[in-house]
Specification:
Oligomer: single chain
Helix content: 25-40%
Structural class: alpha+beta
Low-confidence stretches: none
Number of helices: 5
Strand content: 15-25%
Order of helices and strands: EEEEHEEEEEEHHHHE
Length: 214
């Protein structure tokens, strides 16, 4: 899903594009590898596929994807991946990714919805056992039944913070005690960086180049 945005420096400008042109769009000089102040590079793609990142906190737009549909930081949905990369999430439909009756993981039909998401934090394999144990215990609680969902007061964010507090993993669990502090430290930096990439992507959908002064 990476659109492959490229950047090169020439004649005191940064030029963003998806295909390197034969001529500089600013000065019209022919380009070869000796003309660049800095060789072209690929702009880092900020999004990940949740299923490839186990033991992670992941976030995506409530509807659609980041590149095409994201406009408002309030319109975000957050979830947790288990050690297998299944997304466990809470919404108006209740808990997904876990069967509360059998208390077993169930890979959700919506897993493809998480193919373009932001990863807020990921833990290493040493956490596999305790991560899954705490996540399963939290997920099967009646607190996450569909009729308990409230868009403002008891939502996906509430679920993830409850899990992090129960995990007792140091700083991350401490920050999860205060939703505003958690957002400031983990959500805002990621969405701000992603916002710059999204803006660049949309510019390049409308035009072949995006040019910045250095």
């Amino acid at each position: 899903m990476d659109p492959g945005i490229l950047c090169f420096h020439h004649c005191d400008h940064k030029v963003f594009c998806t295909i390197i042109p034969e001529q500089c769009p600013v000065c019209q000089q022919n380009l070869d590898r000796y003309d660049y102040k800095l060789l072209p590079f690929r702009v880092p793609y900020p999004f990940v596929k949740a299923s490839q990142h186990p033991r992670a906190i992941v976030m995506k737009p409530t509807h659609g994807d980041f590149l095409n549909d994201y406009y408002n930081s309030k319109d975000l949905h957050i979830g947790v991946t288990n050690s297998h990369g299944y997304v466990i999430e809470f919404s108006e439909e209740g808990i997904r990714g876990v069967d509360p009756e059998t208390k077993k993981w169930s890979n959700s039909d919506t897993s493809s919805d998480w193919d373009q998401c932001l990863m807020l934090e990921q833990f290493d394999e040493l956490w596999n056992e305790i991560w899954d144990s705490v996540l399963l215990k939290i997920s099967v609680s009646p607190l996450w039944e569909a009729d308990r969902y409230d868009e403002e007061r008891h939502n996906c964010f509430t679920f993830v913070l409850a899990f992090l507090r129960a995990l007792e993993c140091g700083e991350l669990s401490e920050k999860a005690q205060d939703p505003k502090l958690f957002c400031k430290q983990y959500v805002v930096p990621r969405t701000s960086a992603a916002g710059k990439y999204i803006s660049l992507y949309r510019q390049l959908k409308r035009q072949n180049y995006f040019i910045q002064n250095q």
